[in-house]
Amino acid sequence: MTLFWVASAILILLSSVLIAIPIIRKKANTDDVLRDELNKALYKDRVSELAEETRSGIVDDQQELVNDLKLSLLDDVPNHQSSKARRSITPLAVLLPSIVFVIALSYGMYFKFGASGKVEEWQQVSANLPELSKKLLVPEGAVLSDDEMRDLTLALRTRLYYHPDDSTGWLLLGRIALANRDVITAIGAMKKAYKLKPDDDDVKLGYAQALMLSQEELDQTVARRILGQLVQNDYVDLRVFSLLAFDAYERADYTAAIRYWKVMQRMIGPEDGRYSMLVQSIDNAQQQLATSTASDKSVSVTIAVSDQVNIEPNSALIVSVHSADGSPMPVAAARYPLGSFPRTVVLDDTNSMLQDRKLSSLESLLVRVRLDKDGNVATKQEDWFGESEVVKMGQPVSVTIDRQY
């Protein structure tokens, strides 16, 4: 607030100077003097004209007309008393009330419409940013109230306005948005943090969490790639495997979901209260997997990778089902994060490419698997792939990735 008072005082001082200049520099009112001079000049001119008219015989009594002219001039003499009264008002008598009025009006309008209370509250919230941030950064930490979350958001936005290169600030803002399910803000904040520190594992995890909430398939693909990098970097965080498990389950990749949940079980141990919840999740996924595998309308594909294959960490796994004649156009296809091998995926009618041609309509089929290194399905250069033998619908399929385009 000190800065505000200094700035407002300077502005009022400048306003006062602008008011004072014309008042101080105001010249004495010379209208009366000018009128006297003008009347004298007119009188002399008229007297000269009367003399000329008398010589010409136009005027008979020049003196009478001169007397009338003098009377007229006398009637136009200014009231010196009123002029003196006007001159008795000093510039200071006008200047001081004007300055007082400007000060009263300025501060009165500010206190009425300037939201000074909210400004003070905003500054107090900004000053509490370190304390609020500590609460949010504590793992399994203290739960912030709605008011504290709102204050922390305001303080962070203020700080980030003046310090846009603060990656920690963007990370905190993204976490708050995640807690409030504000997907757009979360993705935007986490993306800024990721650009500032692309190698920070905590930032990577936050960015992946935000992208997983997006409805865009491209965002979710990027999230899977980032999570795959974290797993390969041995970044041990329960949330990484939880996100991967949930994503795999949503995509009906029940084998991968079970594998990730079992990793989480080993990380927390049986004594943890969440262990029983993981057991339920695994049981549910195993039931779904058994149902899918038992159905003659789905294709279960077990994928292995040859030792000669050099896997790029950013690669994506693309599995496609084709008719037995080897047509390049797949009947069904699915895209998965890289994960680990060997692994099993299940494709069914939900993965069909065309509505009028379902996967379940095939009697025989073959499966092609590709490690797409650049994320573009249209390019195949240097991608590794494998192809199965022709099998009947409902039979398990095994594919080994061992060839390169």
From TrEMBL:
Record's keyword annotation contains Transmembrane helix: yes
TPR repeats: 167-200
Domain Cytochrome c-type biogenesis protein H TPR span(s) in chain numbering: 118-275
Gene3D superfamilies: Tetratricopeptide repeat domain
A Pfam family hit: TPR_CcmH_CycH
Annotated keywords: Cytochrome c-type biogenesis, Membrane, Repeat, TPR repeat, Transmembrane, Transmembrane helix
Domain of life: Bacteria
Entry's transmembrane regions: 89-110
Record-linked InterPro entries: C-type_cytochrome_biogenesis, Cyt_c_biogenesis_CcmI, Ig_CycH, TPR-like_helical_dom_sf, TPR_CcmH_CycH, TPR_rpt
Keyword Transmembrane helix applies: yes
Residues of the Cytochrome c-type biogenesis protein H Ig-like domain: 299-402
Protein localization: Cell envelope
UniProt protein name: C-type cytochrome biogenesis protein CcmI
